Amino acid sequence: QVQLVQSGAEVKKPGASVKVSCKASGYTFTGYYMHWVRQAPGQGLEWMGRINPNSGGTNYAQKFQGRVTMTRDTSISTAYMELSRLRSDDTAVYYCARDDTPFRTGGVIIAPDYWGQGTLVTVSS
Amino acid sequence: DIVMTQTPLSLSVTPGQPASISCKSSQSLLHSDGKTYLYWYLQKPGQSPQLLIYEVSSRFSGVPDRFSGSGSGTDFTLKISRVEAEDVGVYYCMQGIHLPPFGQGTKLEIK
């Protein structure tokens, strides 16, 4: 069965960086885009971007351009999301979520099916 | 930016009664590949979102058949034929071809 297991909660100071991991199992890691979505406390869902684990190609939401970096390590079926220059309003639960279509081509399509358990990132001085 | 508008923002339903959530998009969700990328998710309290419906009306694996999706173009609906206690949470519609993708959510409570 598909499983996405994320790294544990983080507490960071403003201006620092955080790197969240997402270990995939139960499917061919390189065959499906991985999305990253965040949720501030009591708020809705916000798409941050996606990575093609096969090529390493990425698409980021404009809001996060220049601050977010998505990478992967295919040898351990793990995707990473690093967010830099953290601010207090980056406090949120960060989710990885697998795209629902194998070897998706064409433009950016956002279609997650399985989600990780979430990683709480708290930014506080 | 596209705007996804869900109504109502909250609803309280007696167990066994039906429920319906509307999702209207400010732009067509029909992609050039012929698919309409409209999805429904349920986020139960303290949990990650879980996929219920994909491409307007297809139920995801393991989703009970009391959940159904319909619509086309810019107007979409999620229906629960008979609400159960385990259906509480926030329902999000999401479109996959424009940014930002998610609606604001609809909170379902049990009376």
Care to give the gist of this entry?
Chain A has 125 residues and is mostly beta strands. Chain A has strands at 3-6, 10-12, 18-25, 34-39, 46-51, 58-60, 68-73, 78-83, 92-99, 112-115, 119-123.
Keywords:
heterodimer, A: about 120 residues, mainly beta, seven-stranded mixed β-sheet, four-stranded antiparallel β-sheet, globular, B: about 110 residues, six-stranded mixed β-sheet, 10 strands, about 0% helix
Describe it for me?
The complex is a heterodimer of chains A (125) and B (111). Chain A is mainly β and 125 residues long. In chain A, strands 2, 4, 5, 6, 9, 10 and 11 form a 7-stranded mixed beta sheet that branches. In chain A, strands 1-3-8-7 form a 4-stranded antiparallel beta sheet, with no helix packed on it. With 111 residues, chain B is mainly beta. In chain B, 0% of the residues lie in helices and 48% in strands. In chain B, the strands form 2 sheets. In chain B, strands 2-10-9-4-5-6 form a 6-stranded mixed beta sheet, with no helix packed on it. Chain B is globular, with a radius of gyration of 13 Å. The termini of chain B are far apart. The model of chain B has no long low-confidence stretch (mean pLDDT 96). Classes of the chains: A mainly beta (125), B mainly beta (111).
